[in-house]
Give the backbone structure.
Amino acid sequence: MFDLERWQEIFETMSRHKLRTTLTAFGVFWGILMLVLLLAGGRGLENGVKYNFNDISHNSLFVWSEKTTLPYQGHKPGRSIQLTNEDTKALREEIPELGGVAPKSRLGGEFSVNRGTKNANFVIQGEETDVLKIETIRMTKGRFLNELDVEEKKKVCVIGPRAQEVLFPGEDPVGQYIRIKGAFFKIVGAFKVNSSSGGDREDAQCIFIPLSTLQQTYNQMNHLGWFGLLVKPEYNMAIVEKKVKSLIARRHHVHPEDLAAIGSWNAGEEFNRFNNLFAAINIFVWFVGIGTIIAGIVGVSNIMLILVKERTKEIGIRKALGAKPSTIIMLIMQESITITALAGYIGLLTGILIIEGVNYGMNYFKIESEFFKNPEIDIGIALAATGILILTGCLAGVIPARNAATVNPIEALRAE
């Protein structure tokens, strides 16, 4: 394999047929390049989607109430279900599979948030501390709401990026006051959202206040909007989801078969659905990439067959002088592997350079997408591509090498 004369002979043969060698190698180059770019693109899509899941736990579950569609226990259909604080207590006491229960509510009606002469409309959301078990809230200044704030119904708040931009441009908002629908609240912290979503996300428009404060200050006593729930990892999320909805249905006299009365969103199922989708995409990408590489192998194999035919007399002389069939096989196989390896590694390198160029361009021009982020090639893919190159080189040379090894010296010397 490391015979210098053999390598010189291989490169001399390749240099004598530059155009043929280049066109042959292009099939392998293109196959590896397409495989790398498709895999990197698929990884970019996967990273983008998963990045948006970073804001919530994969074991989270959200449940809210709708209107009934079936009569039950004397109640007519079309009845609105109003969640209450007692539902929170029941969920915490009766469903041990839950690791966190975060009741939520929002301030309804038309109003504005004021700070001096500045005012704007924002989403005012009541929260409890369990929300931190379910959702990731990235604090940039100060702190989030704590248990004491909720217990004592303090008029404190945590503002989002839009409120900082509109009401406190270039200022530190912590410790200052804003007026929400006539009541003054002290700002104890500020948070940010995913940069890929930016100010377009509803979270960016939010101002968080203690749920108990919202209920008392704005006459929403014992009213809740929805629940954020954390399912303990050892339990099946679909089963827990059914138990939660069944409990709420029973407490509010909803027909057990009225599936539309209580809505839910299961983050775990959604996350698994995306994982399955990207697994299918990866399988498809490998199928297309390897199919393209196989087309390249066929081209290399055909050229090597032509090469063996052209060198029939030379091979016959070698065998007549005592060359072993294994030596002839090694020569043809080595040339085949060299062509495929060179073409493949150039394709691999080109793909990596294109991917890095895309990454650099996205960072330099600050191009951010909610569904595409950080396309990359990991070490596993690089090793797999290396294995494919070696395998394709061997496969491309198998038939030509076998034909060369079976050349009859006498017949070869007679060949024109």
Summary: The chain is about 55% helix and 15% strand. Confidence is low (pLDDT under 50) at residues 196-200. The chain has two domains: 4-54+272-414, 108-219.
